């Protein structure tokens, strides 16, 4: 891609750049698709003045990528994933502790997709992870782990997790997939007090989140009573919870009341929860 000459750069408005520092120097041009792709690659090389400036530039860049229909897989999967573990100055970013809300996902029918696509299945995984990472980051959540077709994130508030899940499902449904496939992801959400390790969580609440995810269907968001109560106590705007009954989940000592998250733009009709 040819570099902008001084005259071309001067002719661009401020909105055509992802970052403008306090001295007025404009960096990371994003006025067309080629420059957006270049900015995604070069983002990690730019010395930002503070974390707020970096975050603002990141959001402007991701919005530009969305405008030009660019899936920023490498940017989100690489640069942002490393920044979750390391702060702007190299400090370790600690995962939240205490009462947190966990969100887990997996791809429905992943085995069949692997058989159908072969090596190209990697394209599906990359796009799904990009959507998940963007959705989690947009509401201030934290990615914990991503492996195979599964994804684990944690949030300091139940509402944050629910908002992320809703945004992810909307984005997944709007996406055009390879070979016009219908790619659907099941999402489970639970709020509790997991035990923190250096970079992950363990304990019964983690197991509960995993089991809730497993009983759902692609396109569905299933939440525990803890999450429902947490959202209702804070801000239930435009979100409702459809009771799915109380279910005995594998490995858990007591039956768990489960709810389907309902919001504008989400699918509404699903078969009964899966029996595992």
How would you summarize the topology of this molecule?
Elements: H1 6-10, E1 17-20, E2 26-29, H2 33-42, H3 51-67, H4 73-85, E3 100-107, H5 110-117, H6 121-138, E4 142-147, E5 150-155, H7 158-174, E6 185-192, E7 195-196, E8 201-202, H8 204-215, E9 221-224, H9 225-234, E10 240-247, E11 256-262
Features:
276 residues; alpha+beta; Alpha-Beta Plaits; 2 domains; seven-stranded mixed β-sheet; two-stranded antiparallel sheet; 9 helices; 11 strands; 40% helix; globular
pLDDT < 50 stretches: 76-90
Query: Considering the protein shown, what is the CATH homologous superfamily of the largest domain?
Result: Nucleotide cyclase, GGDEF domain
Number of helices: 9
**Pairing-aware structural class of the strands and helices?**
alpha+beta
Descriptive notes:
A seven-stranded mixed beta sheet has the order 4-5-3-6-9-11-10, with helices on both faces. The chain is an alpha+beta fold and 276 residues long. The chain is built from nine helices and eleven strands. The chain folds into two domains: 13-70, no CATH class; 100-262, Alpha-Beta Plaits (2-Layer Sandwich), CATH 3.30.70.
Question: Can you summarize this structure?
Answer:
This protein is an alpha+beta fold and about 280 residues long.
